Molybdopterin molybdenumtransferase (Maliponia aquimaris), 388 residues
Amino acid sequence: MITVAQALDQLFALARPLEAETVPLSAAAGRVLARPVTARRDQPPFPASAMDGYAVPQATPGARFTVIGESAAGSRFDGPVGPGQAVRIFTGAPVPQGATRIVIQEDTMREGDTITLRDTLDDNPYIRPAGTDFRIGDTVAAPRLLSSRDVALLAAMNIAEVPVTRKPRVALISTGDELVMPGDTPGPDQIIASNTFGLHALLRDIGAAPRILPIARDTAASLTHAFDLVEDADLVITIGGASVGDHDLVARVAAELGMERAFHKVAMRPGKPLMSGRLRDAMMIGLPGNPVSAMVCGHVFVAPVIRAMLGLGAAPAPRRRATLTAPLEPNGKREHYMRAQLTDDGIAALDRQDSSLLSVLGAANALLVRPVDDPARAIGEQVDYLPL
Ligand SMILES: Nc1nc2c(c(=O)[nH]1)N[C@H]1C(S)=C(S)[C@@H](COP(=O)(O)OP(=O)(O)OC[C@H]3O[C@@H](n4cnc5c(N)ncnc54)[C@H](O)[C@@H]3O)O[C@H]1N2
Ligand code: MOO
């Protein structure tokens, strides 16, 4: 069996980075910027007032000015402002030529067309120079996972169409005679396909375009038929049938269809029967069927693969450190991803770790990572975890 780190390296070697496509700005959040983009304007494009008040050539306490016009956001005062003159101005408006500062209206008294400055003025000129936010040619670097904040910046730069990495198309194939879809009526020996939907949600969250294919039954013909429905997927994920039982057909059928297998079985818990390779034009990952195993492998392997396809680099899921609030038994020969609860006090593994227990996974907010042969750990020691 290979280690988790070796499996990840092999998965990254199998993953192909995807090409770019153009999307409207309103669809860019959550996508990965594929190429650097460049500001097409200065912001602000003119020296702009930061406050509502009066633009004046200079200001001394008690000075009087004649108001000669108005500059509002969207319609500037055309012309200069000279000695003894002021222009009424509003936040965001162009500062007229000749003005060196804005006196905020709270510091003025107005009578008709005359203003008098108060005896105490603050020092702030309240003028934002042209290009103070960004200038023509300033770039947003790629690759970058675009946030709502980035979208606001791109909009201000007048970038209406954004080059982003195409979403990885993922086909999800559940296998097993025992499975029915949520909402269906299961027979006495049947259960609901659950981790299929958990993985679909996870994949959408991380920027992929997942598609749930019909459940494959435990026959070579049914599984072959499911693989035939994969179409143009970049990644095919099978769920279940990965182990050694008589009905675990995935490895055999995939091999018959020509899969070049990179590995089968990883020294981890849960998730041991994981397999991967390339099949036809797609990368293939065979996940174990146990619901928690499939979801844990989703976080530990599938999410980093999707990030690599999106051009965000080949790196394991980022880990953090926390202090143990409950002791741990020694670990064995498989890297253990324990369902755990993280609080302000630290982290503790949950009591039941069986890989069929989705209720325990639902109660967890972290996977506490135990290295191979990790000795017993006491309260107060530091451990690694993956946030969920
Ligand atoms: N003799 C051995 N038996 C098993 C081994 C082993 O090494 N030797 N490994 C165990 C481990 S570890 C795991 S994990 C499981 C995984 O087996 P499979 O990938 O072949 O999964 P299945 O047998 O098809 O299913 C296991 C379990 O999960 C349920 N399942 C499957 N798909 C779904 C789904 N989409 N949604 C919800 N539940 C699903 C299935 O009904 C089974 O209960 O093998 C151990 N056995
Ligand atoms: O590896 Mo299995 O996934 O332990 O339950």
In short: The domain at 20-42+135-165 is CATH 3.90.105.10 (Molybdopterin biosynthesis moea protein, domain 2). The pocket of molybdate ion (ligand 2) is lined by residues 269-272, 288, 290, 293, 355 (CB under 6 Å). Helices lie at 4-14, 148-156, 195-205, 220-228, 250-256, 291-309, 358-363.
